[in-house]
Amino acid sequence: MVPLKYNVRSLRARKVGSLMTIFGIGMVVWASIFAFGLSSGLDRTLEIAAEPLDVIVLRKGSTSEAVSAVTESAAREIKSLPGIATNSDGAPLAASELVVFAYLPRRGSEIKVNVSVRGVDAVSRTLRKEMTIVEGREFTPGVREAIVSRAMANRFQNLGLGDKFKVDGAEFEVVGIFEAGGGAVESEIWTDERVLAQIAKRTGAMSSLQFRAASVADQERLINHIKNDEQIDLGALTEKQYYAEQAAQSGLIKFVGYTIALVLTIGAMFAVANTMYGAIASRAREIGTLRALGFGRLSILVAFMLESLLLCLAGAALGCLAALAVNFFLGGIQTGTMNPGTFTEVAFSFDFGPKILLQGVILAVVMGLIGGFLPALRAVRMKVVDALREV
């Protein structure tokens, strides 16, 4: 086999061309990591929100809480079913919740978008154990007060601590800022369910009922019971299933991200191939000499493939370091998008974890293998006599 140091010296001898290719591949890997990180960040936000034993009850056929309705009588009936977990006082861990929209402008823009406002009861916080007030205080039940996630406070006007915003013409004051570990609840505003129901003229019904089952067996039995009860005419699914369906509705975002990564990768492959073709054309006599010294076609092929991979791995390292540097200096990258199922804003952070960085490295390896194969094949097909005659 041709020694690896031959490839390293060859790259060093063509510094300008090698560095240009490494930089180009690094930019492609960098952009692809951002595309992968966006898609993974959105999925992660929805996955974090799901508690294994929690169940969401909606109107049959509803795709989200925003278009669902559960009557108070049906909610009372479900809360009385055996198998629902209870708190220390013996009360069922079941919360009646109402979701409506506020129409709010993003910061630095006059364009308004739908933002989810969730009316909650006393049990709702128990069902979201990851939620913590980091500034201000809890809202007071029965009063037009609200708490807002830090992500939404940073993205929207009138949602800072002490600010006021309107829902259906009624004014609410922001009295607290919360964090929830990056889960889907960080895309919401929380207030008292009964106050919100009066303003939205939704008294007597809520959007959903969320409860925690005592065990996996109880969860399955309760879901089947609710689905088969024709009198209440409701559907039920695990919280994990609910958020998986919400993530599936955001498939367009993933499609766009991966399409961009594919187009950039194809362009980078041509760049790698062009660099390697140039290297082979200028080193025909070297190739002939290696063949004359007894190195076989397979050894030559492997040598040039390794050279292509070295270029791409160096580019992958550059791209990964650049992505991590941007994320570090910005203190994490947060953004938002519209949920196609609810037409509301979903706030999430880009994911730059090991899995995403590994995807970037794998992408670079694919570039090296595909982009370097044809030039390497051309090198091994050279006749020794013709190669030695090249100037």
Layout: helices, strands, pairs:
Layout: H1 4-13, H2 15-48, E1 54-59, E2 70-71, H3 72-79, E3 94-105, E4 112-120, H4 124-127, E5 132-136, E6 145-149, H5 150-155, E7 164-167, E8 170-179, E9 188-192, H6 193-199, E10 205-206, E11 208-212, H7 216-228, E12 234-238, H8 239-248, H9 251-282, H10 284-292, H11 297-329, E13 334-339, E14 344-349, H12 354-380, H13 384-389
Parallel strand pairs: 4-9, 6-8
Antiparallel strand pairs: 1-11, 1-12, 2-10, 3-4, 3-11, 5-8, 6-9, 7-8, 13-14
Helix pairs in contact: 1-11, 2-8, 2-9, 2-11, 2-12, 9-12, 11-12
Descriptive terms for the model:
391 residues, 10-stranded mixed β-sheet, 13 helices, 14 strands, 21% strand, hydrolase activity, cell membrane
Assign an overall shape. Answer: elongated
How would you characterize the largest beta sheet? 10 strands, mixed
Strand content: 15-25%
Question: Could you tell me the radius of gyration in angstroms?
Answer: 29 Å
C-alpha end-to-end distance: 25 Å
Encode the helix/strand succession as letters: HHEEHEEHEEHEEEHEEHEHHHHEEHH
pLDDT < 50 runs, ≥5 residues: none
Residues in helix, %:
40-55%
- Count of domain modules: 2
What is the average of the pLDDT values?
Answer: 81
The structure class reads alpha+beta
The beta-strand count equals: 14
Give the count of helical stretches. 13
Pfam families: FtsX, MacB_PCD
GO cellular component, one term: plasma membrane
Domain MacB-like periplasmic core: 18-227
Enzyme class: hydrolase
